């Protein structure tokens, strides 16, 4: 990728000098592609493998069983047809060729802390509908969600340094987050796609940042101005963060 999506080793942040160098590298990535790959992040690969395994096991269940956790008003759950992500850019396209299951970090809390404004119909106040099979699904998802929250906090602090701010500048702004965790399943196709139909339509992410895990099959692409779409190479043990619209503006 010619450094357009650089690989950044977060283990260098163990010293103050290293932390500043990492922040500078992240700043450069955010000002160009908005994407970078992190290694040395401290997330246990065993946890990543278990998260991948339970999510895949769920998606490979019969459609009727998966429908038990289908999303409904006031819930997070399975989107068997999530529409097209291209709509986030105001573009019209056929539905994306994937299934998505989503859970919110607040979604298993009591209603008073999940939706303190009383609006349980909003995405921020929605309750999680997570599958009972495989039986370890919920525990693994909670463990993974906690690991991603820790990594997100580390990255947000590096964003602060990259912006010339105190590393804790964003702490009180993310201490009660509304993040979601999503797993995408790119199921086998039953026929050729429709014109303009993609596995996941071109889009931006609306939040502060996204942390993406991609498996060895790859498939993630980013658009480079005046040079079209470029693949983000798979990096063993790495995550691909990207800047969301909220942080970009």
From TrEMBL:
Keyword GTP-binding: no
Pathway: Antibiotic biosynthesis
Record InterPro entries: DIOX_N, IPNS-like_FE2OG_OXY, IPNS-like_sf
Keywords assigned by UniProt, alphabetized: Antibiotic biosynthesis, Dioxygenase, Iron, Metal-binding, Oxidoreductase
Gene3D superfamilies, per database record: B-lactam Antibiotic, Isopenicillin N Synthase, Chain
Keyword Oxidoreductase: yes
GO molecular function: dioxygenase activity
Residue span, Isopenicillin N synthase-like Fe(2+) 2OG dioxygenase domain: 180-248
Domain Non-haem dioxygenase N-terminal: 5-106
Annotated family: Belongs to the iron/ascorbate-dependent oxidoreductase family.
Listed PANTHER family: FI07970P-RELATED, OXIDOREDUCTASE, 2OG-FE II OXYGENASE FAMILY PROTEIN
Name of the protein in its database record: Isopenicillin N synthase family dioxygenase
């Amino acid at each position: 990728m010619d450094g357009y999506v650089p690989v950044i080793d977060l283990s260098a942040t163990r010293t103050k000098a290293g932390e500043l160098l990492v922040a500078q590298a992240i700043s450069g990535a955010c000002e160009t592609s908005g994407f970078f790959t992190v290694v040395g992040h401290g997330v246990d690969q065993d946890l990543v493998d278990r998260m991948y395994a339970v999510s895949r096991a769920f998606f490979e269940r019969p459609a009727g069983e998966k429908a038990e956790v289908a999303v409904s008003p006031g819930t997070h759950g399975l989107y068997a047809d999530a529409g097209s992500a291209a709509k986030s850019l105001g573009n019209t396209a056929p539905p994306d060729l994937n299934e998505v299951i989503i859970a919110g970090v607040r979604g298993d809390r009591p209603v008073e802390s999940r939706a303190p404004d009383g609006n349980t119909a909003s995405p921020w106040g929605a309750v999680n509908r997570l599958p009972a099979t495989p039986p370890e699904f919920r525990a693994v998802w909670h463990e993974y969600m906690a690991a991603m929250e820790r990594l997100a906090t580390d990255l947000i602090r590096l964003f602060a340094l990259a912006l010339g701010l105190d590393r804790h500048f964003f702490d009180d702004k993310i201490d009660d987050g509304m993040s979601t965790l999503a797993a995408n399943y790119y199921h086998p196709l039953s026929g050729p796609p429709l014109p303009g139909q993609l596995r996941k339509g071109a889009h931006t992410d609306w939040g502060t940042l996204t942390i993406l895990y991609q498996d060895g099959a790859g498939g993630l692409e980013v658009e480079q101005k005046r040079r079209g779409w470029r693949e983000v190479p798979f990096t063993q043990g790495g995550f691909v963060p990207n800047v969301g619209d909220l942080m970009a503006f």
